[in-house]
Amino acid sequence: MASVTLSLEDYAAKVYGCWLGKNIGGTLGGPHEGRKGLNSLTFYDPVPEEPAFNDDLDLQLVWLYVLEKKGLDLTPWDLGEAWKRHIIYPFDEYGFGLRNLKRGLGPPVSGWFDNWFTCGMGAPIRSEIWACIAPGLPEVAARYAWQDALCDHAEDGVYGEVFFAAMESAAFICAAREELLEIGLAMIPEESRTARAVRNVMRSHAEGLEWTAARERMLTEFGHHNFTDAPQNIAITMLGWLYGEDFGDALLKAVNCGYDTDCTGATLGAILGIIGGKEALPRRWVEPVGEAIKVGWGVVKCEAPESLEELTARTVAIGQEVVRRHSARIELSDTAGTDVGCMGKLDLRRSEEVRELYAPRRQDLVCRPVGKWDVCLRYGLDASIRPGQRKRVEVTIVSRRDQQSKGYVTLRAPDGWTVEPVEQRPWLLPQQGDRADFEYLVTAPGDATQLDISNPLSVVFEPFDRRAKEVEFALIGAALWKIVGPFYAYEDPRAEVFGPEERLSVVGGDLPCQELWVSGNAVDLNPWLGPRPNGVAYAQCYVKSPQRRKARLIVSCDAGFKAWLNGELVLDTPQGRPIIPAGHRSGPGSVAEATLNEGYNSMLLKVVRGRSPVALHFFITDQKKHQYPDLCATHWPEVAED
Predict the structure, then answer these.
(1) Residue 238 counted as domain residue
(2) Taking a C-beta distance cutoff of 8 angstroms, is the pair 10, 331 a contact?
(3) Half-sphere exposure (Cβ direction) of 636: Cα atoms closer than 13 Å
(4) Residue 239 located in a structural domain
(5) Cα 38 from Cα 418, distance rounded (Å)
C-alpha cells in the first residue's frame, strides 16, 4: 500500500481539535452522568466558565507522560507499573485494577481477576492518546489501546477502547463516517456485545428510525443496569454521531440519551474534533470551556500539561516519532497528499493482526520486560490458590531482539510450598520472537496459616551473558467462608438461630457446616439457599488486618441480608439492590462504617433468597473508598474453632 501524506499543520489542528472536543463533550455531559432517562439539554447546563476535570482525559495525560519518559516501546507491564505510581482514582474498574496491581498481579490478569467491571467505560474513554500519536495507523493505535485496556478491563472493556482508537486514528486521514465505523468494527470480534450494539444503531439509522426509537431498540437488547457498561454507551456515542445534524446537535443527542453522559459526550467530541480540526469547532461551544486543562485529584506525581496548546505540542512530538517508525505507511509533510478515499488508504485486512491479540492463550499470560527478553507466567483460569491446592503454571521466555541468546530458568515459591520440577532448566532462543516454555506444578502448603493475600512466585532468570534476575509474580490466597443452610424463613425456627443474642459463629452446635473457598469478593451462596423463595443461609469468614484501622464494609447483594462485624450488627437490609460492587457507588444499606481490629475480625452474613438466585459481593475499603490490598481471609484463627 502506498504511503499517505498528512500535513503537519493539519495534524496539529486535528490533535488540538481532538482534545478540545474532548473537553467540550465531557463538560457538557458531566453534570448529567448516571441518569438513565432521556435528557432535554439544548446547551451546557449549567454553562461553565472553564472545562470540568474528567478522568476521561486525566488518565491519558499519564500515558503521555509515560511515553515521554519510557519511549514508544511500551508494554502492558509498563503501563501497570505507571498506574501504581500515578493514578489513585478508586472508581469501579480503576479500584479493582489498582488493587490487583498492588497485590502483584500484572496485566492482563489485573484486568479480569476479581473485577465485576471488566466491561465498563473506563478503558474506552482513554483511546484518544493512542489515536493521536498514531495518525492514519489504526492497527498501531489499536495495539497500544489493547495494552492500555488490559490494566483494568477484559472483553468488551478492551474491545471498546480498541474500537475507538482505531476509528479515531483513521479519522486523521478519512472523514467518511460509515467507512470509519467499519474500520473500528473490523478491529474487534464481530460477535462481541460492543460490535453488535453498534451495528444495532447503524441498522436503525439505515432503516430511518427516529433517534429516540433507535435508542430504545438498542437498550432493549443491550441495556445494562450499570450505567457505565461499555456496549450500551459506545452505541449511544455512535447514535449521536449518526443522527447529529452538526457538532452541537450530535453531542446533544448523545448526552440526551443518558447513561454515562460525560463519556459519550467526550468521546464523540474528540472524534468530531479530529475530523474537523480546531477551527471547525463552533465558537459557541468553545468559548465557555476555553483552552485550560483541569486535572483531577486522582492523578499524582505527573507533569501534566496546563493548556490544550501544550498538550497538543507534546502529543504531536510523540506522534512524529511514531510516524517516522512507520514511514512506509504515512508521512508528515508541509503539504497534504491527494485524497484517495478511506478504503484506498487503509487495508482492512490488517485487522487480522489486531484480532490475534484476543486469542485465548493471551488472556492469562503476564509478561515482564527484562532487558532484551520478556519473562512471562501463565496463570490458567484463576489467579488464586487455596491450602493444599496443586496448580499448574507455565513460564515462558520470549526474545525481543534478533540475536541468539541462552541461559537457565528456575521457579521458586515461598517456604513450605513445593515446586515440580525443582531443577534449573536451560533455554535457547535463536532470534527475535522465539520462545521457550516450561511447565511447573506448584502446591500450596496444607496449613492455611502459611498462605498470605499475595504469595510470590519468583522466576530466577539467568542469561549466560547477563547477571541473573529474580522476577516476581503473585498468586492470591483464596478466602475461606464457612456456611450453613438452607433454612426456610417462617417455617424453620433455626432460620434465626444466629440472632444477635446467640454466639455469632457458624462453627459448633448440631448444624452441618460446609467450606467454600472463593477467589475474590463474589460469594456464591445459592447452593445453601435452596431453590425456592425465603431460603436462608449464614456465611462467615475471618478477615485478618495488619493493624487497627477505620474501614467501610461493603455488601453488594440483590437479596435481603444482615451483616455482623465482630458480633455487632452493622447492616440490616431487608430489600436487595442490583449489584454494583463499587466503593464509591454503594448506597445506603450496602455500606457500614466500622473499625477493623488488628488481627482477626469475624464477618457473618445472613442472606434470604427471593424469587431468583442471589448475587453477593463483599469487600472492604478505607475512608477514601480505596480498597485495602493487604486484607487476608485465607483461614480461620484457632479461637474461632474453640
Answers:
(1) no
(2) no
(3) 19
(4) no
(5) 59
Q: Are 84 and 99 in contact (CB under 8 A)?
A: no
Q: Which is more confident, 397 or 506? A: 397
Give residue-wise pLDDT tens across range 267-284: 999 999 999 999 999 999
Q: Which three cell numbers stand for residue 239?
A: 447514535
Q: Which three cell numbers stand for residue 458?
A: 519468583
Q: Reduce the secondary structure of 171-182 to three states and give it as a string.
A: CCCCCCHHHHHH
Range of the domain at 138: 4-192+267-354
Number of alpha carbons in the 13 Å side-chain half-sphere of residue 389: 19
| Residue 199: count of CB within 10 angstroms of its CB | 16
Q: Is 289 helix (H, G, I), strand (E, B) or coil?
A: coil
The CATH number given to whatever domain includes residue 80 is 1.10.4080.10
Tens of pLDDT, residue by residue over 368-383, are 999 899 999 999 889 9
pLDDT tens digits, 144-194: 999 999 999 999 999 999 999 999 999 999 999 999 999 999 999 999 999
Residue 294 has pLDDT above 80, yes or no: yes
Asked whether residue 197 is assigned to any structural domain, the reply reads no
CATH number for 560: 2.60.40
- Cell numbers at 556, concatenated: 453488594
Give ∠ CA 629-632-635 in degrees, rounded to 5: 165
Q: Which of 412, 441, 476 is the last residue of a domain?
A: 476
Shared-domain flag, residues 468 and 541: no
The predicted pLDDT at position 184 comes to 94
Backbone dihedral angles phi then psi of residue 408, each to the nearest 5 degrees: -130, 155
pTM comes to 0.94
One domain for residues 472 and 491: no
pLDDT tens track for 43-54: 999 999 999 888
Assign 25 to helix, strand or coil: helix
The two most distant CA atoms of the chain are separated, in Å, by 85
| Domain shared by 563 and 608, yes or no | yes
Same domain, yes or no: 328 and 422? no
Distance separating alpha carbons of residues 186 and 346, to the nearest angstrom: 11
Of 311, 336, 354, which one is at a domain's C-terminal end? 354
pLDDT of 340 reads 47
E strand or H helix that includes residue 217: helix 211-222
Q: And the C-alpha cell for 426?
A: 536451560
Sign of CA dihedral 526, 531, 534, 537: negative
* DSSP 8-state assignment for residue 329: T
